[in-house]
């Protein structure tokens, strides 16, 4: 009696154990194999608004919406190597799945999109500029992005002239200054205004200014905290709210095409739902919030001075830099009809839309 009960109990325990292992494997295997980790990189520190205000929450939403089929691994500050101008190649070649990059850092790579950076073309502010940038790059400039799946394109809200020792009230005050320029178009605009442009990425600005190699920089307000620009400059010149910005840095969130196509259907649908114009304007809104926050901090510092261009100074700068736009339109490099692109962009700028809440 006792031996039979022992053997029966043993068999029962074995069945229960095998069933438990089977259930565990059945539950674990599909989820483990279905998770896709997207490698995302960018050129700013992890404390910058792009990661804290957009990328981190966006990744959380993407993971939840995909049913945890997608997760992100973010590499800030070029942690995977290379320099900012190489980010488009890193995406195209599959070194990373996604990169957030400034189009103008890779001079000549996105020729049609350069129109967005022309002097006094886009309105100041991130949201409206990002609406225009998304529409333009998905329409007239779409050939620039044939090698990528584009998740978002946005504006940095526009340029501010930050200087160490010189109050800039108009173009005459810029004569002889050496100013950092973020893009090729910004360089041409700065040269046209009488200063000398020096190209460099954000990470180099503060050190170069501190050493006296340059006198100031063209950069959006959002860049100021992560680059410590306010620690090496005292004067900041910006356009008025009703004026167009001297230039913008156009930023894009680019994905490797194969990485996108390999996603399972549910994961791809989640990514699609969180991309496009909505994400572009989400970036833009984050930049608007940063502009308000950083400008207020700088204005409240008694050692800092913020100057707003009056209409006469604005018109003078716009007229002085008009040749940059005319020369760009006249160029037929690469067979691109640049005059048609400018006309299309001007039409988009005229199509005013309300800001996102």
Automatic annotation (TrEMBL):
Keywords: Signal
UniProt signal peptide: 1-34
Protein name: TRAP transporter substrate-binding protein
Species this protein is from: Larsenimonas suaedae
Lineage: Bacteria, Pseudomonadati, Pseudomonadota, Gammaproteobacteria, Oceanospirillales
């Amino acid at each position: 009696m006792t031996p039979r009960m022992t053997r029966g109990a043993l068999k029962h325990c074995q069945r229960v154990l095998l069933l438990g292992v089977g259930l565990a494997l059945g539950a674990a295997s599909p989820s483990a194999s279905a998770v896709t980790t997207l490698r995302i990189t960018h050129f700013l520190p992890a404390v910058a608004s792009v990661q804290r205000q957009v990328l981190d929450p966006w990744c959380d939403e993407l993971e939840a919406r995909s049913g945890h089929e997608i997760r992100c691994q973010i590499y800030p500050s070029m942690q995977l190597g290379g320099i900012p101008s190489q980010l488009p190649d890193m995406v195209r070649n599959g070194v990373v799945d996604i990169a957030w990059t400034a189009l103008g850092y890779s001079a000549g790579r996105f020729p049609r999109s350069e129109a967005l950076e022309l002097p006094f073309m886009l309105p100041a502010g991130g949201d409206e500029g990002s609406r225009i940038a998304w529409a333009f790059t998905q329409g007239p400039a779409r050939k620039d992005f044939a090698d990528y799946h584009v998740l978002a394109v946005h504006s940095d809200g526009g340029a501010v002239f930050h200087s160490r020792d010189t109050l800039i009230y108009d173009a005459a005050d810029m004569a002889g200054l050496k100013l950092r320029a973020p893009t090729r178009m910004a360089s041409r605009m700065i040269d046209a205004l009488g200063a000398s442009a020096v190209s460099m990425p954000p990470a180099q600005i503060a050190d170069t200014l501190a050493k006296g190699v340059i006198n100031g920089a063209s950069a959006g307000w959002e860049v100021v905290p992560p680059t410590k620009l306010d620690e090496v400059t005292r004067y900041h010149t910006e356009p008025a709210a009703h004026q167009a910005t001297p230039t913008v840095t156009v930023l894009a969130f680019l994905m490797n095409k194969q990485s996108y196509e390999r996603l399972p259907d549910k994961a791809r649908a989640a990514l699609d739902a969180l991309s496009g114009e909505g994400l572009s304007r989400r970036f833009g809104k984050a930049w608007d919030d940063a502009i308000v926050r950083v400008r207020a901090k700088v204005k409240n510092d008694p050692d800092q001075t913020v100057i707003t261009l009056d209409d006469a100074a604005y018109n003078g700068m716009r007229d002085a830099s008009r040749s940059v736009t005319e020369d760009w339109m006249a160029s037929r490099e690469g067979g691109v009809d640049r005059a048609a692109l400018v006309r299309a962009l001007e039409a988009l700028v005229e199509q005013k839309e309300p800001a996102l809440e």
